[in-house]
Description:
The protein is an alpha+beta fold.
Amino acid sequence: MKKLYAIIIMLLTVGLLGACNNNETSDSSSEVLIYYIDSKTSALVSEPYQLISEDLNEQIEELLYMLKLNPKNLLYKSTLADMVTVKEFSFNEDSSLTINFDNNYSDLSGISEVLCRAAVVKTLTQITGVEYVQFAVNTQPLMDINGNLVGIMTKEDFIDNTGTETKVKLYFANEAGDSLVEYVTDITYTGTGSLEELVLQELMNGPSQIGMYPTIPKGTSLLQVEMKEGVCYVDFDGKFMEKIPELQDEIVIYSIVNTLIELPYISKVQFLINGELQPAFGDGITFDGFFERKLSLIDES
Length: 301
């Protein structure tokens, strides 16, 4: 692999010199996008790149190398951090590519890990013949934060920041305020914020369907959303504590918790108010711990 990297650097240099010759034209059919991560670690971004290699395995190796380099745009971050190493890869007859990372890949978590996966898959599936990608860490299949097998991935498994719509599940209150009602809707991910921020904003906007009721007091401000090791930290201003009186305390809390945990990289939620933990919410429900999904509150009728 080191030999190929040296060849790539040499050819890139030759390519830059050749670009000065107006008689030289590039083959647009071998142009691909290299996906990177934006400076806020909230979205994918990309830069065009002209493939040098023609052999499939060498193209894979070439693009993996490019994913480790710093992008031209200084506001972007490389996809594969210096600490993460590709130990080997194998291309199979079923058009699937298996990439085996070293143990350092396990240090990636939350949205950073999901964006890394998305960038690698979306970059490599542009190679003719590569339709599926699967990850392994030290030869063991990659598992998500809930211990589930990630398995085979395609480019369609990931949204990007080009205005693509994606379906999300929101949980609002029923009329009695004692159970949650599921609402499936499309949101447009623009890349200006994280997906969890957009989902929370939709929840704060309230329902547009008859028979569903808001759970977050009107005028509440979302101060910050932060991801760390599968935990989503949600910071509201003090208005949030002015609970809508018709709602049970758990309905307010779990409308947010259940909504966020629908996102595959979130396993727990912790709330803050103006940056601080609060011991209790509403009529005294403990509020300073970690919350997990609670399916028993969802109205299945």
